[in-house]
Write a structure and sequence with these properties.
Strands 3-2-1-4-7-6-8-5 form an eight-stranded mixed beta sheet, with helices on both faces. Helix content is 41%, strand content 20%. It has 299 residues and is α/β, with parallel strands linked by helices. The chain has a single domain, classed as Spore Coat Polysaccharide Biosynthesis Protein SpsA, Chain A (Alpha-Beta Complex), CATH 3.90.550.10. The protein contains nine helices and eight strands.
């Protein structure tokens, strides 16, 4: 019988005083069958609010909760590298500080895919983000539609993001890049591993609520993905026209047909991608440190 696998949960945070406690609580509330939570490490990078104090205050409640303070904010990849250099396990789960795990079996559904004896072996697993935005508003619908299409693409070609579990093979991330999950996956694939999607590992997040915030967030994400293709020649599945078309058709079944709102969403994403391509073409550099999108912090 296989022993339960020790796992590190890493949470990278910057000024997350409104969300960090709920995120940590949701991690420790998880059922632990095939794995055990060896430690939860919060890396707080240059936080100027009460984030650090809140985490310190929770260490009495959770003895295996650790805080690493990065005095200067140098981007998420820097925080992840600190986490990877500090953890004590071979398997790591990355949970965003402004997200919460939905159910008690979320991590079990996620991590268990790494523990199967499959050929080729699974090296990285992504969970399913479901936003809390109101679909009755135009931008709220756009966020819901975006993540619904993300889900449909991931069912065919696993797209890793928001909630990730992976085997650490020694990869450390470049500090001039914002891509983290994609680089981790790329390096694992080079070593013969494959990625997987755990649709029943649900994490709740919050998407933008205004057009300006939607464009800001999506442009940043797309800049990182364009650089992945330019620098590494690595294709991101959500840029595949055939996958996107089929995902759109399936999303119409799940969300219903809303021609105007769907067209509005498509236009927003097309503008974001055009801005990202122009950003990269002009050699403006990857956005490894970015401004927070305020409306996404109201989970």
């Amino acid at each position: 019988m296989r022993d339960v696998e020790p796992v590190t949960i890493g949470i990278c945070a910057y000024n997350e005083e409104r969300n960090i406690e709920n995120s940590i609580d949701s991690a420790f509330a998880q059922e632990q069958k095939s794995f055990r939570i060896e430690e939860v490490i919060v890396v707080s990078s240059g936080s100027t609010d009460a984030t650090d104090d809140i985490v310190r205050g929770l260490t009495g409640k959770y003895p295996n909760l650790r805080l690493i303070v990065e005095e200067e904010r140098r981007g998420k990849n820097s925080a992840i590298n600190l986490l990877l250099d500090s953890k004590s396990t071979d398997i790591v789960v990355l949970l965003n500080a402004d997200n919460v795990l939905n159910d008690g079996d979320t991590l079990e559904n996620l991590v268990s895919k790494l523990l199967t004896d499959s050929i080729p072996p699974v090296g990285i697993v992504g969970g399913r983000p479901i936003p809390t935005n109101d679909p009755n508003t135009p931008v709220g619908f756009a966020t819901q539609m975006l993540w619904a299409m993300h889900h449909e693409v991931a069912l065919v070609y696993p797209k890793i993001g928001e909630l990730v579990a992976f085997k650490d093979i020694g990869t450390r991330l470049p500090l001039d890049s914002q891509s983290d999950e994609d680089i981790l996956r790329m390096r694992l694939e080079e070593r013969g591993y494959v990625g997987a999607y755990a649709e029943d590992a649900v994490v709740r997040n919050r998407g933008p609520e205004t057009v300006s915030d939607f464009l800001k967030q999506r442009t940043r994400v797309n800049v990182g993905e364009v650089y992945m293709r330019k620098i590494h020649g690595y294709s991101i599945p959500t840029w595949n026209p055939r996958l996107l078309y089929n995902a759109l058709l399936r999303t119409m079944k799940s969300l219903g047909v809303h021609p105007f709102r769907m067209a509005f969403t498509v236009v927003l994403e097309m503008v974001s991608r055009a801005r990202a391509v122009n950003h990269v073409r002009r050699g403006m550099g990857d956005l490894n440190v970015w401004d927070q999108v305020g409306t996404t912090k109201k989970l």
